[in-house]
Design a protein that fits this description.
The chain is mainly alpha-helical. The strands form 3 sheets. Strands 1-2 form a two-stranded parallel ribbon. The two termini are 33 Å apart.
C-alpha cells in the first residue's frame, strides 16, 4: 500500500542550531583532532600516557549514561562530515550484521589500548594536552593530509553503506556510547530520551524519511519502542513530525 502523501514539515530552529554546531565542529577539526582521534589514544597508551582523547572518551561514556548518543547527533565532527554530504547519500544501512560490526571494532580497540598500556608498564602519567602545541592540535601539512584522508574514508563508508554509515558500522565511539545507554536502560535512572504518542501518528512517514541515521522511526512510534541503539538523539523526528507525536523528554525507561 502506498504511503499517504503529506507535505513535509520543515525542521525547527533547533535543527538549524544543531547543523551550525556540527558545521563548526567539522571546521575546527584541524585544531581539535588530537582530542578526538582514537589513534592518538593508542599513541599515548604505547607510552603509558592517558591523553586528552582518552579522557574525552571516558566523558562520552559517562554522558551516554544520561543522554544517550547525543554527542553523535550534536557535536561529532565525523557525523557532521556525513550529514554535510547527505544529499548524495540516499540509501539507509540495512538492518542486521552491519550494525554489529562496530561492537567488534570497539572491543578490539579497547583490547589494543589495554595491551599498549601493559606493554608500556601501565599508566605512567596523564597528559590532557598530549600531542598538541599549547593545547591546539599540531596543524602540519602531514597532519592535515591524514585528516583529509580519514574524513574522505568516513564519507566513502557512508556513501557505500547508507546514511551515517560510519556511525552505524565502524565507529568505536558509537560502541562506547551504546554501552553507556544500555547500562542506563538496565538500571532505569532518569535520562534524556525520545517519547512518542502513537495515537497522534498520522502515518505520514516523515519521521523515517528525515532521520539522519535512516532509522524506521515510524515503526518505533507505532510499536511504542523509541529506544534504538543507533538513535543519536538529534530530535529531527520530533521537529519534523506534523502531528507532534514525538518529543524530547526526561524520564525512566
Amino acid at each position: 500500500m502506498a504511503e499517504p502523501h503529506q507535505p513535509t514539515r520543515p525542521a525547527s530552529s533547533r535543527q538549524k542550531y544543531r547543523r551550525w554546531i556540527l558545521l563548526l565542529t567539522f571546521i575546527a577539526i584541524p585544531v581539535t583532532i588530537f582530542y578526538i582521534s582514537p589513534i592518538v589514544i593508542m599513541m599515548g597508551a604505547s607510552e603509558g600516557i592517558v591523553t586528552g582523547s582518552f579522557l574525552l572518551y571516558v566523558i562520552l561514556f559517562v554522558l551516554a549514561l544520561f543522554a544517550g548518543r547525543i554527542w553523535c547527533g550534536w557535536l561529532c565532527p565525523m557525523g557532521a562530515c556525513q550529514e554535510l554530504g547527505s544529499r548524495v547519500i540516499k540509501k539507509t544501512v540495512r538492518e542486521g550484521w552491519p550494525n554489529w560490526v562496530k561492537y567488534g571494532v570497539t572491543v578490539l580497540w579497547i583490547v589494543a589500548i589495554a595491551n599498549a598500556f601493559l606493554a608500556a608498564g601501565g599508566v605512567l602519567g596523564i597528559d590532557p594536552l598530549y600531542g598538541t602545541v599549547n593545547g591546539i592540535s599540531v596543524s602540519s601539512v602531514e597532519v592535515l593530509m591524514i585528516v583529509v584522508i580519514i574524513f574522505a574514508a568516513i564519507f566513502l563508508v557512508a556513501f557505500l553503506t547508507g546514511k551515517r554509515g560510519f556511525c552505524h558500522v565502524l565507529c568505536p565511539i558509537a560502541g562506547i556510547m551504546v554501552a553507556g545507554r544500555k547500562i542506563r536502560n538496565f538500571v532505569g535512572w532518569p535520562a534524556l530520551q525520545l517519547e512518542a504518542d502513537a495515537s497522534r501518528c498520522t502515518d505520514c512517514f516523515t519521521c523515517s524519511k528525515r532521520c539522519p541515521m535512516g532509522l524506521d522511526v515510524h515503526r518505533m512510534v507505532r510499536e511504542g519502542r523509541m529506544e534504538n541503539p543507533d538513535c543519536i538523539m538529534c530530535a529531527m523526528c520530533a521537529d519534523v513530525c506534523p502531528a507532534g507525536a514525538i518529543r524530547y523528554g526526561v524520564g525512566r525507561k
